[in-house]
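Inputs:
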Amino acid sequence: MFELAPQNLVPIISQALIEDQGSGDITTEAIVDRALVARGNFLAKKELVLAGWPVVVEVFRFLSQCISSEVLFDEGETIVKGAVIGRIQGPAYLLLAGERVALNFLQRLCGIATYTRRLVQAVEGTGVGILDTRKTTPGLRLLEKYAVRVGGGVNHRFGLYDGVLIKENHVTAAGGIKRAVQQARSKVGHLHKIEIEISNMQELEEALQVGVEVVLLDNMNPEDVRESVARIQGKAVVEVSGGIDLRNIRNYAVSGVDFISIGALTHSIKAADISLELEIAL
Amino acid sequence: MFELAPQNLVPIISQALIEDQGSGDITTEAIVDRALVARGNFLAKKELVLAGWPVVVEVFRFLSQCISSEVLFDEGETIVKGAVIGRIQGPAYLLLAGERVALNFLQRLCGIATYTRRLVQAVEGTGVGILDTRKTTPGLRLLEKYAVRVGGGVNHRFGLYDGVLIKENHVTAAGGIKRAVQQARSKVGHLHKIEIEISNMQELEEALQVGVEVVLLDNMNPEDVRESVARIQGKAVVEVSGGIDLRNIRNYAVSGVDFISIGALTHSIKAADISLELEIAL
Amino acid sequence: MFELAPQNLVPIISQALIEDQGSGDITTEAIVDRALVARGNFLAKKELVLAGWPVVVEVFRFLSQCISSEVLFDEGETIVKGAVIGRIQGPAYLLLAGERVALNFLQRLCGIATYTRRLVQAVEGTGVGILDTRKTTPGLRLLEKYAVRVGGGVNHRFGLYDGVLIKENHVTAAGGIKRAVQQARSKVGHLHKIEIEISNMQELEEALQVGVEVVLLDNMNPEDVRESVARIQGKAVVEVSGGIDLRNIRNYAVSGVDFISIGALTHSIKAADISLELEIAL
Amino acid sequence: MFELAPQNLVPIISQALIEDQGSGDITTEAIVDRALVARGNFLAKKELVLAGWPVVVEVFRFLSQCISSEVLFDEGETIVKGAVIGRIQGPAYLLLAGERVALNFLQRLCGIATYTRRLVQAVEGTGVGILDTRKTTPGLRLLEKYAVRVGGGVNHRFGLYDGVLIKENHVTAAGGIKRAVQQARSKVGHLHKIEIEISNMQELEEALQVGVEVVLLDNMNPEDVRESVARIQGKAVVEVSGGIDLRNIRNYAVSGVDFISIGALTHSIKAADISLELEIAL
Amino acid sequence: MFELAPQNLVPIISQALIEDQGSGDITTEAIVDRALVARGNFLAKKELVLAGWPVVVEVFRFLSQCISSEVLFDEGETIVKGAVIGRIQGPAYLLLAGERVALNFLQRLCGIATYTRRLVQAVEGTGVGILDTRKTTPGLRLLEKYAVRVGGGVNHRFGLYDGVLIKENHVTAAGGIKRAVQQARSKVGHLHKIEIEISNMQELEEALQVGVEVVLLDNMNPEDVRESVARIQGKAVVEVSGGIDLRNIRNYAVSGVDFISIGALTHSIKAADISLELEIAL
Amino acid sequence: MFELAPQNLVPIISQALIEDQGSGDITTEAIVDRALVARGNFLAKKELVLAGWPVVVEVFRFLSQCISSEVLFDEGETIVKGAVIGRIQGPAYLLLAGERVALNFLQRLCGIATYTRRLVQAVEGTGVGILDTRKTTPGLRLLEKYAVRVGGGVNHRFGLYDGVLIKENHVTAAGGIKRAVQQARSKVGHLHKIEIEISNMQELEEALQVGVEVVLLDNMNPEDVRESVARIQGKAVVEVSGGIDLRNIRNYAVSGVDFISIGALTHSIKAADISLELEIAL
């Protein structure tokens, strides 16, 4: 998993540790004996889907090579409330130094995986894929998209550079759907498909006429989505987005679409409830 | 406001833009004429408290000095649903290049300020301050704490380096409350007060005996908090935390504490609903 | 043009200047009066296609805002031997400080554009596109691919991240063409087409059966290419590569392929012959 | 060899890998099993002089400490067409991740060493040294100059900071050869010799009169070079440059000069033809 | 000790080595055989207090993992003239590469610790703490404050961020002592004490009336300090600074103050006299 | 002056400001009104030689483009006690933000220039040049060597990369003076002279026999230096070093040497006494 390669993790981990430690942990430095060794248990205080343990490992490896760790579950496994997720062991002052940063990463990533999993379960049996968006936290996109995948979701494009998505603003700027699609087709590399955002039937007609390969139905209600799918007749892949959450996702999922994309997956997530409990090793 | 100085903003803005643009925006480059000028309106799609407009300005200034901006509200003002927050104007392809990154910052910071404001309003008249924690998004701590302040909250320490907070793990490591506080007092600089986390009356007694200056009551119910405050008798500043949200915060606020700290302020926030609508300038 | 945005150029320009200047230009500092103003003409000493002037401008802008520049041709224009390409004016010691770095960039990019143009002319009328590869100079990929485009070529994928190309090694690792393509299809995002490298008719058959969208014919002679094209019958886009240069490219271009990719475009280029001649302004 | 110290290699290797991998290798991630182990042979597809294997090692070490490597030749050895240069072994997906970047470095450096070797052989027996120039690829100067040395060449100054070379533009700016040399002598550190570029006999006279220690004869034909050498009579070291290549270098080498400098050594090199062939380890 | 964590040391060590080595150590590369192994002894050429050995270790570890080291004293120990402080062993060319940088760090830090120790000894028995200031060398603050601590001194705030010190300029800007202190109290976090700079009795009165917690008596003579202490009556911690050195510090120390701060501790220190002597290992 | 180019200054200024400000100046942010404008005078509290004003300008320019500055003296001028060196004007909170960092740079550089000037005056009339060494503060070498030049001194090599100096350890490693010099001559570039460290007459003889161009007499008394100079007879440039300071430098200067190098110039300097006094602008 590329996102978890040290060269990708070290810069953000380093930045997060610097942000937290600045010129040093004055409490721990005053109180905790450097020779003291401790064990720490990461506890799931509510049920969650695990995502991001390799980041925890890297946080502590960055601080010192004297810290060992073990994890009791695989990424993507559901962990029940009260269970120990994993353990670390090493000098107490270093465990305290990394505690908050490790938890900040882990709680966010598990939060994303857990919510993704719920959405995936909500569409079970329909064959619909749950997509993320570019509405990610600045600096954490790769990790957040990783957590979506761990939760069972599917990644939409990673940025503006690796996929063509013609949105409403592009159509306005290009002077119409037809011209926008034709321009894209003539200039974009031969390995890209073209997706276009559509908000009504007329736009859909136009898009199908110029032969787009993927259609994004934006802010439509389930009935309009159903009608659109009927019109498309399998001639394009269909993605739907806008105002979809756990309560209404099933309605959309059974309408015949291929993918549902959800911004809240990364921009409005509840952190998973996890704590680190230290015990002094004797 | 130091957090908003360009030298602080440019690295994270640069990182966020690189993350989004990689080797270039292939859709816009194929479709949008470089000479096209556009105006963009940032719309509040739900009521929100504004925080982070200076980051939006800096995102577009980073992209080009040809983009102008104006904002119609002050940081901290409440903006009603449907109102235009601010405007940008410049080459359409550059507005499109910065759109998502600017929104990702703005929606998160407004989300934090909006929730902080609600908590502040919930304790109105009690004199209690709403504190944030170190449970912030890796890389965004200064900005998130800024948004808390804009929403009317008060910043707890910025990291491990600028305040002494003796937590349960420190007490364990030091071998008791008394030793922990004495160690801290003898080693920590002469400008720092000492705060200690307490979870029951016995610990509280011990802490008061060694004369700590600030007490953090952790995971207590309002009754226990009230009893603790009575015992403290103004001899220490009192902070309370753990499981407090909009529904129960008033119960805690009227118990006589000085501060309530809320991790969810920064780790489980709902992004404010904001969109950018472009119109082609003629 | 995204590649030429200052945020992309400044790091490599800064690196190149540091590499050249280290602790300072001891010759110029000893000899050249700081108050001396000079004009410099960039001369084409052989015919060339212009690419990279914006990099030259940025090199000198990085050194000082007191240096002005003008260019007499557009990117992509052919410039005859002996012509002045453009001019700079400013403090002599700064022009000397940037001279070599500016030329090192300009000569390489013009060299690439010039060779690309020749290949494009060699296939004129066939409708075939000239593609680059990932065989670029470490650190300069965006700029080199920009120069290819300026010369009239078409960019293949920018890296491993924005396009799927299944090469021989992937087939080996996956255990056959069929499995490789199926794996790719099931895991890769919905905006990507799948390209596969093929070196004989049997592999081609297999690839067509699993419905790949793009075929790369590797190291085939023109006859085999022709036969393959006949077999493909327009069911896939066809790219050809391997041992193709100015002498034999036409043979491949008339064989019915869509694209020809040439590694030498970026890995074995002759720098364009350009010099900077200073004259002291009076 | 300082150029090959990890602290020098890691930044450019990291940059090259980021450039190639961006948000991840989508092909390999979809197709190649993480548990699959492979061996890779670097094959010389044409005869070449080896230079840069330590960079290859560092590329793969950067990716993972699980990749082992061995090389069958020393830097500077000639390798015949078809021979295996060296081998790597490790997880297949990591070998694929580093393949192109490793080859891009290795092919360029071998290309430089190979051409340098040919020039060195062309002047064999004359005692003349083959010098490089500052006409190097931005960002790769140390490595390219290393390859020149491996090929048997001699390094001219590394940048503007470590040697005094008064060129035509400096003379113009200083107002004459005499003043330029005197200025240099009075201001430059006591460990530097002074070299001056000369293009005719009159300039040579002037330079000899002020006692320069090294003379660079620029763009002269062999006859004029011979005449100049006769005039210099060993009173200065003699370097010659301008329009010299494999076809005419011997003519210059026998004219009595000490060094011949060749810009093409680094700016117009043909990449060595090398491929990496993977085989799955059982 | 946080200051000595590799993530803090590596950037400044790397910067110092780059500054010294640039494109390589031309003397050593020409002369010293790569296979030659040497031992190096760090000799105290005058009596000193050891501080900074872990930086020496890290300098050589940065250069290579083949260099071993041992130290014969603890940080903070006094070392007599002529004694060996510690030893390194490894490839001679690497020891030579790191020698000057290691010594530049070590001599400065030992210089600071040595002078701090003398000041501490000069106030022995008075209970007064010797404080440093923010008058540190740009880029070396953490290390210099570490050396002060090693020498027996106490650290004042690390920067503008971790302590409140209202200086004369702040009072001017705020419009009086009272307003300045009240402003600070209402806005600064609940973990900070407030210190104010005072230069006469009237200011002192005003400060005591608004209840500041720490008073800095600036540029007073010992008599005025004594009078001030009498007036303060233990209601505030007392720091004194300005024009205090080894000759007069005792006069201040016996006046009843708690702390004496000395800028010269970090801005005007004499480097300790240390040399590295290599011997070739057989 | 290359050292003062923004691209060189910005990194160390940025680092110094980050080091001082961390998460923000809590005192100023609480007390000083953002709208308040102030003027600041830099006062020489003792006589000094000015060096480093351009760094002061850049510190404040880095903070904001709203700060103006003027300087009343040239670099290198002597400024009497009590004089105003220069002025800055702008928002009070920004002047306070940059004050300490600006002073830390300025006081150090003026300290170096002032001491250099005294040494230069002490050798007046002898023609001897005062050289610095590589014993500089990590990270500040270019600036410190600049200050030496401003004070009237001469720069020795900037690092290991731009000059050959064979020291005792090199001789040991090479197995004798003769071999060391011959090795250096055969491998080092044609623009470098060779200097060797000598500590007695026998070594001097050996060095002269192999024709070194510069001799460094290390730790000799003036008589031995005189004798050495007599022996050298102008056949090599002569530098002397070791234990030389203001009290004994004249004795060495009249012994016929060309240069005297002084490590204390950069490693044991007393910061110049300078303060910044703010006044509120009305």
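Residues 44 and 221 of chain D are 37 Å apart (CA to CA). Flag for discussion at group meeting.
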